[in-house]
Amino acid sequence: MKPAPDSPAFQPLYRQIKELITQSLVSGEWGPGDPIPSELELASRFNVSQGTVRKAVSELAEEKLLVRQQGRGTFVASHAQERSQFPFLRLTPDAGQRSELSATLLDLRRMRGDSASLRLLGLSSGSSIYVLRRILRLSDKPVCYEEIRLPSNRFHGLTSQVVEQHECMLYSMYEGRFGLRVLRAEERIKAVAAPDEAAVALGAPKAMPMLLIERVAFTYGGEACELRRSYNDTRQHHYWNQING
Amino acid sequence: MKPAPDSPAFQPLYRQIKELITQSLVSGEWGPGDPIPSELELASRFNVSQGTVRKAVSELAEEKLLVRQQGRGTFVASHAQERSQFPFLRLTPDAGQRSELSATLLDLRRMRGDSASLRLLGLSSGSSIYVLRRILRLSDKPVCYEEIRLPSNRFHGLTSQVVEQHECMLYSMYEGRFGLRVLRAEERIKAVAAPDEAAVALGAPKAMPMLLIERVAFTYGGEACELRRSYNDTRQHHYWNQING
DNA sequence: GAGTGGTCTAGACCACTCA
DNA sequence: GAGTGGTCTAGACCACTCA
Predict the structure, then answer these.
(1) Of A220, B63, B140, B164, which is least surrounded by CB within 10 A?
(2) How far is CA B244 from CA A8, A134, A209, in A?
(3) Integer distance in angstroms from CA A52 to C1' C7?
């Protein structure tokens, strides 16, 4: 394989290799947690030097699709093996460490999607979605009331049992049972007067200021795979964020 | 220069080079916007191969301390040249693009720092700080009331004139006038009932839910150089965030 | 056309893992 | 000790910038 600098959509070799590796990830040739072939194997398979494979793999490792381990090999990233286990959970106690996290499922329904949700999820009108509502507790304190919308075509046969088994490891569940790894999320955050539903669920005063977080989560290929709207009690907790210039 | 694999604090060569380059940045040998020597020059200066310099420079470019431009050279990053000009301003209109941003300085005082601020800024007790309050407007709509605390030892001779000159480009001002580049910030976000001061300043109803953002900004070497507490009206705006798993 | 960063190769040696 | 990823070199050729 050689670069073709004159072609209109010229990509350097290592990007082309990266794309080929990504395809194998998407197709499931290697599943989450599996080792991928060694750099030398990939180099001979794609007929390029080890250095070029390294560059492709390095970018995928930076994007956290792959995980390298010196002496052992390179593995498909998985929520199960993550160290900082909840990169998507930003709610933190004002004082002290984040402690036991638990979740209670309120209900799970399958219904025809509203147009806004379908648009965000990239579904055609009339498609059905799963809607689930739950409460999150930190150290037994209810702090978050949320409603989650999932495209039913990607979550065939989702049941409350499955959700309850995984409690507060939903993204591991998406990955393990449905092969959907959440890579990235965008959030819009506001301060609002709590709707009655949320205030009651969290045992908070009526219309108390709460943090409203609307999230769209994305999987491989930038496809939206989850919508989430949560109301958060920030009297003794805060949303933590880091900005890199 | 050769690696010393047996030494207790072994660092690969390219990390050592990276450290040397960082030192030149901190010392101001090359200022924001300046070009640094070419890779080949650095390679011969440090007596290593171009590849090793590249790896050091690449990491610094990823961390956004340097900016590479093919064919031109490598430059010290600067807030002035940034494309996405306000990476630290996350407040965005719910509908439409972010439009004209303006700021009004309410007052600027120099005072003895309270103990909490001094601790966060890493100052000894009794040190003095600047405190400035201002209002930010998006499309002429007042949306943010904030109080900023700066260590006076790093901001010698700060005046309201200087602040007003730079309006909503404070971080460019820190960099241009005081050689302090903001690299990173940590924020804690809550929903609170607006204090009277903020409600009045933004023309909002008393005790309306507002987004409270407490920020600590960091410069080279992970040193805190600014504290900021802002109250944000999120009736028609939201705080935008992206999370990478 | 001289100089810059960007890509790619081939090969050496290293630290680490695991049987 | 065989196999992995990690570092480092030297050298080639490329695309891009600027005078």
Answers:
(1) B140
(2) 31, 24, 28
(3) 9
pLDDT of A109 reads: 96
Global pTM value = 0.78
Give the chain B residue whose CA is nearest to the CA of A236: B190
Strand C, CB < 7 A, residues 176-235 of A: none
Please determine, for residue A4, whether its predicted confidence score (pLDDT) is greater than 60: no
What's the CA A7/C1' C1 distance, rounded, in angstroms?
A: 26
**CA angle at A112 for the pair A107 and A115, rounded to the nearest 5°:** 115
- Contact list, A212 vs chain B (CB under 8 Å): 191
In chain A, residues with a C-beta closer than 8 Å to the C-beta of B90 are: 243
State both tokens at B237.
């705006």
- Comparing CA positions, the residue from B61, B52, B71, B56 lying closest to residue B1 is B52
In this model, does residue A52 exceed pLDDT 60? yes
Q: Could you tell me which of A78, A90, A18, A84 has the C-alpha nearest to residue A234?
A: A90
Residues B90-118 pLDDT 10s: 999 998 776 778 899 999 999 999 999 99
* A99: pLDDT strictly greater than 50: yes
Give the nearest partner residue to A245 out of B183, B211, B234, using CB atoms.
B183
Least confident of A75-84, A193-202, B129-138, B200-209: A75-84
Q: Which two tokens stand for residue B192?
A: 């609170």
Contact B152, B110 (CB under 8 A): yes
B6 confidence band (pLDDT: 50, 70, 90) = very low
Among chain B residues, CA nearest to A59: B62
Domains, chain A, in order of start with CATH, read 13-77 (1.10.10.10), 81-239 (3.40.1410.10)
Cβ contacts below 8 Å, chain A against chain B, sum to 118
The two structure tokens encoding residue A221: 């290929």
- pLDDT tens string B8-46: 457 789 988 998 998 888 778 888 888 999 999 999 999
Estimate in Å the CA B30 to C1' C11 gap, whole number.
36
Q: Give B84-90's long-range contacts (Cβ < 8 A, gap of 24+).
A: B87/A243, B87/A244, B87/A245, B88/A243, B88/A245, B88/B171, B88/B182, B88/B185, B88/B217, B90/A243, B90/B239, B90/B240, B90/B241
- Mean pLDDT of the region A48-75: 91
How far apart are the C-alpha atoms of A76 and A64, rounded to whole Å? Answer: 9
Q: How far is the alpha carbon of A132 from chain B, nearest alpha carbon, in Å?
A: 22
Task: Give chain B's mean pLDDT.
Answer: 88
If one counts every other C-beta atom within 10 angstroms of the C-beta of residue A206, the result is: 10
* Closest chain B residue to the Cα of A79, Cα to Cα: B245
